[in-house]
Amino acid sequence: MALHATSEALWTQGLHHLTLVGAGRDVSIDFWSGLLGMPLVHEEPNEDNPAESHLHFDPGDSRMITIFANEDRERNSARTSTETGAVHHIALSVSAESLAKIEARLDERGIAHSGRRHRGFTESIYFEDPLGMLIELARYSFAVPDGYTVADVMIAAHHVRASEGARSIEPAHVTAAVNRLSAQWTELPAALWNDRLEARVAGLGPATR
């Protein structure tokens, strides 16, 4: 699998915000603040539909999750669309401590969930919001070596996985990647690095642009 970007690519700086079509105001606040602990930091009318409230929640990194709340929309247990072009699910980063507590909180509220799942490099749990959007709470199951990023570890783990012909990244691949990065591994083939990461190939140092 080639990882690359063209020289004409725009450089994004991260997610600015994410807006969802929500249920009523109180239902939305109860889910995003009451269940998930996100503070409601701003509320105003939806500029495109003044009959709706536009709620801004801070998920923990100040990159807002905003909700268009409308009292005419009620809870709906039906799963949101997974057709082409639809959002499949939203994954939110949590600590190991929070992930350990969420099952009990979901059970207390009668919210169905997947139970905790381990998938090679992540541990997570899945459940749905009041209107059927699939939500994932996730944490990476590795510590990032000093001077590197999660992306560095993932790229290195991908190289290990590919070199072994494995179908997906397994815990052993992540462990090998972390160990090699920690030892200043400099043998990653350039084909694995896109234009954004080329500055790191020679010494696998911190990201630059």
From TrEMBL:
Domain of life (superkingdom): Bacteria
Domain VOC, residue spans: 14-140
Record PROSITE patterns: VOC
InterPro entries recorded: Extradiol_RC_dioxygenase (IPR052537), Glyas_Bleomycin-R_OHBP_Dase (IPR029068), Glyas_Fos-R_dOase_dom (IPR004360), VOC_core (IPR037523)
PANTHER family noted in UniProt: RING-CLEAVING DIOXYGENASE MHQA-RELATED, RING-CLEAVING DIOXYGENASE MHQE-RELATED
The name this protein goes by in its record: Glyoxalase
Annotated organism of origin: Meridianimarinicoccus roseus
Lineage: Bacteria, Pseudomonadati, Pseudomonadota, Alphaproteobacteria, Rhodobacterales
